[in-house]
């Protein structure tokens, strides 16, 4: 498979040219670290090697167009919402409540209002399609959902897509945690999404910040490029672009390896269950351990793993999340198995699940965020209107949204996550 970006970088780095251009490292840190020099193309106005590489990606994902992002799925989501203006003049987005902060930030900047569709559990992507349908009205511009949540819960994209088609409303999907689905044939595009944001760097072999904006309708490509240009850096990293270019060759040639990783993770899940671990139902690329039922807090369990030589993706009071990649080495999984086997089971701990918050909305997110505000102690915020974005990271999901009234349940959860101060309207 052609690697137009990587091939260009190889040729240029071996040419011995005197680098009278940015960046200041002059190739000493990495010979592929360049800027938009002659023939290197330009990310947001591409008609050369970047366009060629993006077209290859589109063919692999089955997209009408695929656009590279050097700003992660955040930039892809920003571009997605601005591109939505090309196909809808409506102003409200129906979104899964536990969406990444990039959605709410983008809505604030672009002036969208949001109606929240609630799951049955905290931090879950599993939104009942009928709950979404109940919220659809004449001002609905689009539906926005996450395909996979941080614990590994999976949205029924096909069913949600059917609701959107019934009402002729576009479906936008945050597939940041599901780029590997290009191998499993259940990518959101395949299931009916109109646009998706995929973080290549989460589950594919690409550098941090590497992501895609996939469009079902290729005619929106130019509009999407303009939208991403509005939010993205004018100096995108060619190191990230190189990794996306090379990722195409992995996707094209490593199906067996990726499916093998999924199989091995599933086998490991079975072994752990047999050993007495309680696992939360999760997607094929992660294992979510209920550490409390094994006798530990999630944070303590993660620290034990750290001492044994493994670093978890996320831990909280109750759970530990182990995230894998389509390029994961089988040896890693065997080492992890031995570590987990060596941790003794203890008396289960009683740790409550996080509450499913339903704060009352008072203002639009934009009006609240750009209003006159001050910072107060969280325990003193009862009855006040939230005016900031307060997101424990991970999972980077706001507990209470700008424009909502902070109630006692909100305060309890904010403090539980260590959020000691919040911004509120004066």
Task: Detail the topology: elements first, then pairings.
Elements: H1 4-13, H2 49-61, E1 65-69, H3 72-83, E2 92-96, H4 101-110, E3 113-117, H5 129-135, E4 140-146, H6 157-166, E5 171-174, H7 181-184, E6 195-199, H8 200-203, E7 211-215, H9 221-231, H10 238-253, H11 255-274, E8 279-280, E9 286-290, H12 298-308, E10 314-315, E11 319-323, H13 330-341, H14 365-369, E12 373-377, H15 408-416, E13 421-425
Parallel strand pairs: 2-3, 2-4, 4-5, 5-6
Antiparallel strand pairs: 1-7, 6-7, 8-9, 9-11, 10-11, 12-13
Helix pairs in contact: 1-10, 2-10, 3-4, 3-9, 5-6, 11-13
Characterise this structure:
- This protein has 426 residues and is an alpha/beta fold.
- The protein has 3 domains: 4-253, Aspartate Aminotransferase, domain 2 (3-Layer(aba) Sandwich); 255-341, Aspartate Aminotransferase, domain 1 (Alpha-Beta Complex), CATH 3.90.1150; 365-425, Alpha-Beta Complex (Ornithine Decarboxylase, Chain A, domain 4), CATH 3.90.100.
- It contains 15 helices and 13 strands.
- The strands form 3 sheets. The protein has a 7-stranded mixed sheet, with helices on both faces.
**Shape by Cα distribution:** globular
CATH superfamily of the largest domain: Type I PLP-dependent aspartate aminotransferase-like (Major domain)
Q: Uncertain segments of ≥5 residues (pLDDT<50)?
A: none
The total of beta strands comes to: 13
* Percent range of helical residues: 25-40%
The value of Rg in angstroms is 22 Å
Mean pLDDT: 97
* Class by SSE composition: alpha/beta
Give the name of the CATH architecture of the largest domain. Answer: 3-Layer(aba) Sandwich
Largest sheet: 7 strands, mixed
**CATH fold assignment of the largest domain:** Aspartate Aminotransferase, domain 2
Strand content of the residues, in percent?
5-15%
Q: What's the CATH first level of the largest domain?
A: Alpha Beta
Number of DSSP helices?
15
When the domains are counted, the total is: 3
The spatial strand order of the largest sheet comes to 1-7-6-5-4-2-3
Order of helices and strands: HHEHEHEHEHEHEHEHHHEEHEEHHEHE
Separation of the first and last Cα atoms: 58 Å
């Amino acid at each position: 498979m052609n690697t137009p970006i990587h091939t260009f970088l190889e040729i240029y780095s071996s040419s011995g040219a005197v680098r009278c251009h940015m960046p200041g490292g002059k190739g000493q840190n990495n010979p592929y670290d360049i800027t938009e020099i002659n023939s290197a193309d330009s990310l947001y106005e591409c008609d050369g090697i970047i366009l060629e590489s993006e077209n290859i990606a589109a063919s692999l994902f089955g997209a009408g167009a695929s656009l590279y992002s050097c700003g992660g799925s955040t930039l892809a989501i920003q571009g997605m919402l601005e591109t939505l203006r090309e196909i809808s003049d409506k102003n409200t987005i129906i979104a899964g409540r536990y969406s990444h902060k990039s959605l709410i930030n983008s809505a604030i900047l672009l002036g969208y209002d949001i109606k929240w569709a609630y799951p049955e559990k905290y931090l879950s992507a599993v939104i009942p399609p009928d709950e979404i349908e109940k919220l659809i009205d004449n001002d609905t511009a689009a539906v926005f959902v996450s395909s996979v949540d941080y614990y590994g819960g999976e949205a029924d994209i096909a069913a949600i897509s059917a609701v959107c088609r019934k009402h002729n409303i576009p479906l936008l999907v945050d597939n940041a945690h599901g780029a590997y689905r290009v191998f499993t044939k259940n990518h959101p595009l395949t299931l009916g999404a109109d646009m998706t944001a995929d973080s290549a760097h989460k589950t594919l072999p690409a550098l941090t910040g590497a992501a895609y904006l996939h469009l079902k309708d290729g005619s929106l490509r130019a509009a999407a490029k303009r939208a991403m240009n509005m939010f993205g850096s004018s100096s995108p990293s060619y190191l990230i672009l190189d990794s996306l270019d090379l990722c195409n060759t992995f996707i094209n040639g490593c199906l067996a390896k990726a499916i093998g990783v999924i199989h091995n993770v599933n086998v490991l899940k079975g072994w752990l269950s047999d050993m007495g671990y309680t696992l939360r139902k999760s997607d094929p690329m992660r294992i979510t351990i209920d550490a409390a039922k094994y006798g530990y807090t999630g944070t303590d369990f993660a620290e034990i793993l750290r001492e044994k030589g493994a670093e978890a993706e996320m831990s909280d009071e109750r759970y530990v999340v182990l995230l894998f990649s389509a390029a994961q080495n089988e040896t890693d999984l065997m080492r992890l198995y031995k570590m987990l086997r060596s941790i003794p089971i203890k008396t289960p701990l009683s740790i409550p699940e996080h509450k499913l918050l339903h704060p009352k909305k008072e203002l639009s997110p934009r009006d609240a965020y750009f209003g006159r505000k001050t910072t107060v102690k969280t325990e003193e915020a009862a009855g006040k209107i939230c005016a900031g974005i307060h997101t424990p990271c991970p999972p980077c999901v706001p507990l209470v949204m700008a424009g909502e009234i902070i109630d006692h349940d909100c305060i309890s959860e904010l403090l539980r996550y260590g959020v000691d101060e919040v911004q509120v309207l004066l």
